[in-house]
Structures are given as C-alpha cells and as structure tokens.
Design goal:
With 124 residues, this protein is an alpha+beta fold. The chain has three helices and nine strands; from the N terminus they run αββαβββαββββ. Helices cover 25% and strands 31% of the residues. β7 and β8 form a beta hairpin. The chain is globular.
C-alpha cells in the first residue's frame, strides 16, 4: 500500500466511531458473531478505498431503465460481473439486456452485510 493510501486510511480510521463517514462505524453488533466495522468489512472483502476516500461499487439494471436515483436499500456489488449476474437473475433477463453502472460511494452511503446496500438515496 503506497503512502498516500496509508494516509487516507489513517484519517478514515481515526474518524470518530459515531462519524457516519468513518471506517470505524460499527455496522454489525451481534451477540454471537461480535462487532465488525465498515473498515474491517471492506478489508475482509478486498474492496479498496480510493484516494478520495470513496469505494467503487456496481449496480446492474435493465437497459431499458431510465431512473436516475437508486433508493436506500438498493443492493450494489463489488464487481461488474456480480452486479450483472444479480440483475439478470432477479429480473429473469439475458446478459445483453443488462447494463452495469459504476458508482463511487462515500462510506456513509453504504451498509455492509451479506450484500452491500445503500444507506440513503443516491443520484446516478
């Protein structure tokens, strides 16, 4: 990891745990599984934090769609291939009927979990 990325990571980890944009925000507080922060989740899944402190995620949708806002709770994926697969599977579409949108999201816009979802509406 180069010095710039380390500096950004340090700033994001040092953010207050209550800060919505920090890597220390606890997203999971389970009595059996324990706690996991957003930063730990991203690290465990190999999702890099970009130099501007955002993460690059993907959303698949039918090509005929014309909506310009993804609503809170919308699922996003960490690879274009996964986003296309989920969109095709969930809507019974063929791969050529799906488009994948690349999103650059701030840490306070994502909610980790089995699948990453949006915490708030995001304009695309």
């Amino acid at each position: 990891m180069d010095a710039t990325r380390q500096a950004i990571r340090k700033i994001l980890y040092e953010a207050d745990a209550d800060d919505e944009g920090g890597l220390n925000r606890v997203w999971l507080d389970h009595p059996v599984l324990g706690k996991e922060t957003v930063g730990e989740y991203l690290e465990r899944h190999g999702i890099p934090i970009l130099l501007d402190g955002t993460v690059e995620l993907y959303h698949g949708r039918p090509k005929r769609s014309d909506y310009d806002v993804l609503r809170a709770g919308t699922y996003v994926a960490d690879s274009p291939k996964d986003a296309a697969f989920y969109a095709a599977r969930d809507r019974n579409l063929r791969p050529h009927q799906v488009e994948v949108i690349k999103l650059r999201l701030k840490l306070d816009e994502i909610n980790p979990g089995v699948h990453i979802s949006l915490r708030k509406d995001v304009k695309i």
